[in-house]
Amino acid sequence: MKDGRYTRSRSLLERVEQVIPLGSQTFSKSRVVYPSGAAPLFLTHGKGAHVWDVDGNEYVDFVNGLLPVILGYDDPDVIEAVSQQLARGVTFSLPTPLEVELAELLREIIPCAEMVRFGKNGSDATSAAIRIARAATGRDRVAVCGYHGWQDWYIGATTRSKGIPQAVRELTHIFPYNNLESLQLLLESHPDAFAAVMMEAMNVEEPRPGYLQGVCDLAHEHGALFVLDEIITGFRFHIGGAQSLYGVTPDLATFGKSMANGFPISALVGRARYMKEMEEIFFSSTFGGETLSLAASIATIRKMQREPVHATLDRLGQSIIDTTRSNLKRHGLERSIVISGKPSWSLLQFKDTPTATAAEVKSLYLQEIIARGILTAGSHNLCYAHTGEDLERLARAQDETMGVVREAIERADIAARLAGPPIQPVFRVR
């Protein structure tokens, strides 16, 4: 934009790209996922469901740190727990009782959690799960469905495979969601070779009746472990994870994101006979028992148990889905933009039109809605701090934005309206 709205963001980007590749620690928080010249690139602080950028612009946040912020920024209960622990210490020379307390809490609420180990990122947990599966089965191949982190074993099977040895890439196989036959054919194509079938329980569509249990049964039939990646769904769809919501119990499961309201922690949980492989395989980190994140996680989960967090997310999120569909219908955009997902995490899917590509439609939508004070990358990542007023603000911004998008499609001038080139996906997994 030429109105100076993002002057400091642009200036800081020029500085940061001299010292940090991509200018960000996370692909999905970088300039590549937001419309060029028409979005903030750096934030300074947050409160509740609102954030402020380096230029002083305020937004209702529907990104929420890529889903970890489930209660809201600066949640008083989490901040109090962390502040108390900060006065005691952060990283110690031996384990602390907090590790026991959180592990026992997870065992209480997650069906498959007989034992627990902690990490800092989702990739820590998913990679540890694969290492356990390979150790327990003596096999190498892995079948995956969804996104499972940055480590070689998974990312080598995507278009972001640069730097991954071919021998590693060949061991991971992707199968489509909601299609048991394709998984069966895959497992049969390499008899007695698969160590694990890992999948996200849900992404943009609901699992068909019996599908998740069918995946579990197929994995076991072929001697593989069934691993549920709950990095996103855990503590967001249900306090016990998607496995509680859909009634399927995996051998291992991974959690992260929403379990500590933004503090860095992940967990690998599962059946004791598999988790005990941890005594032999090497999964060890200096900061695995860092106390602030443990305290934050305990406080976050206790608040979920004490207050109607998930009922609130479901109510607000369903309102967003209903309003979005109504806006799309009013503007005749139902074939160009589709909303899917669950109330606590709904996603917009953008389609090609006769006059514009899906990337152009998404870029214009984001450009216009961000200019109206809604921070989103194309999804609605809810937190407990969102209010009815926030949703009204989203609805107004959506209505105005969709009007602009409809007019641009009709006039075939979307490209001319963009402040920069269209957004391109990091890579497609959903």
Notable features of this structure?
single chain, 430 residues, alpha/beta, Aspartate Aminotransferase, domain 1, Aspartate Aminotransferase, domain 2, seven-stranded mixed β-sheet, globular
Q: What's the layout of helices and strands?
A:
Blueprint: H1 7-16, E1 43-47, E2 50-53, E3 58-61, H2 76-86, H3 97-109, E4 115-119, H4 122-137, E5 141-145, H5 152-155, H6 166-169, E6 172-174, H7 180-189, E7 194-200, H8 211-221, E8 225-230, H9 242-246, E9 252-255, E10 266-270, H10 272-275, H11 291-306, H12 309-330, E11 337-342, E12 345-350, H13 358-371, E13 374-375, E14 379-381, H14 388-411, H15 414-417
Parallel strand pairs: 3-13, 5-6, 5-7, 7-8, 8-9
Antiparallel strand pairs: 1-2, 2-3, 4-10, 9-10, 11-12, 12-14
Summarize the structure.
This protein is of the alpha/beta class and 430 residues long.
Question: How is this structure best described in words?
Answer:
This protein has helices at residues 7-16, 76-86, 97-109, 122-137, 152-155, 166-169, 180-189, 211-221, 242-246, 272-275, 291-306, 309-330, 358-371, 388-411, 414-417; strands at 43-47, 50-53, 58-61, 115-119, 141-145, 172-174, 194-200, 225-230, 252-255, 266-270, 337-342, 345-350, 374-375, 379-381. With 430 residues, it is an alpha/beta fold. It folds into 2 domains: 7-73 and 309-417, Aspartate Aminotransferase, domain 1 (Alpha-Beta Complex), CATH 3.90.1150.10; 91-289, 3-Layer(aba) Sandwich (Aspartate Aminotransferase, domain 2), CATH 3.40.640.10. Strand 8 (225-230), helix 9 and strand 9 (252-255) form a beta-alpha-beta unit. It is globular and about 60 Å long. The chain starts with 6 loop residues before the first helix and ends in a 13-residue tail after the last helix.
